[in-house]
Amino acid sequence: MAIQPIRLFGDPVLRTRATEVTTYDKELRRLVADLTDTMLDAPGAGLAAPQIGVGLRVFTWNVGGEVGHLINPVLALSEEVQDGPEGCLSIPGLSWDCTRALSVVATGFDMYGEPVRIEGSETLARAIQHETDHLDGILFVDRLDTEARRLAMKEIREADWFATEKPTVRLSPHRTNGLGF
């Protein structure tokens, strides 16, 4: 297992919808391990495969000491909402208040292809929604209201890590069946 570089805001992989996983093999298990190691090292509450340059619908989370992963997630969101601070490993050091569903029921699969159902509220619900958005090419700043998004983009452009040039694209060490970025 290896810690992978995390792609930063501006990298096109973060705006590309990830493809469904169809093969549950050793390579997929290695991807889940790399996502987990990278997330824990960062540290973060979650990490999606596109954030390490792999265009597959896989993410990990670490909330309240519970570490897990989900493949090909489908979400059912509560109508009740929560507002609170949200950050992203691809937008390091910055956070803004973001509205999310208060609770979520997520279904999908584990790394062995077994069905999984996860029910979460508050922080876990926020993390699951955030990471699933990554799989759809959506960043949480897209969910901010117009004024908050304008201010967020200004802060991002002023951040030390923000590249004014086209981001460097690294090849994934994982077999991605042509879906790696």
UniProtKB/TrEMBL annotation:
NCBIfam families tied to this protein: pept_deformyl (TIGR00079), PRK00150.1-3 (NF001159)
Function comment: Removes the formyl group from the N-terminal Met of newly synthesized proteins. Requires at least a dipeptide for an efficient rate of reaction. N-terminal L-methionine is a prerequisite for activity but the enzyme has broad specificity at other positions.
Binding site for Fe cation: 88, 130, 134
Active site: 131
InterPro entries registered for this protein in UniProt: Peptide_deformylase, Peptide_deformylase_sf
Record has Plastid as a keyword: no
Cofactor: Fe(2+)
Name of protein: Peptide deformylase
Enzyme Commission number: 3.5.1.88
Family: Belongs to the polypeptide deformylase family.
HAMAP family: Pep_deformylase (MF_00163)
Cofactor note (record): Binds 1 Fe(2+) ion.
SUPFAM superfamilies in UniProt: Peptide deformylase (SSF56420)
Reaction it catalyzes: N-terminal N-formyl-L-methionyl-[peptide] + H2O = N-terminal L-methionyl-[peptide] + formate
Molecular function GO terms recorded: metal ion binding; peptide deformylase activity
The organism of origin for this protein: Nocardioides guangzhouensis
Lineage of producing organism: Bacteria, Bacillati, Actinomycetota, Actinomycetes, Propionibacteriales
GO terms classed as biological process: translation
Domain of life: Bacteria
Pfam families noted in UniProt: Pep_deformylase
Record keywords: Hydrolase, Iron, Metal-binding, Protein biosynthesis
UniProt keyword annotation of Kinase present: no
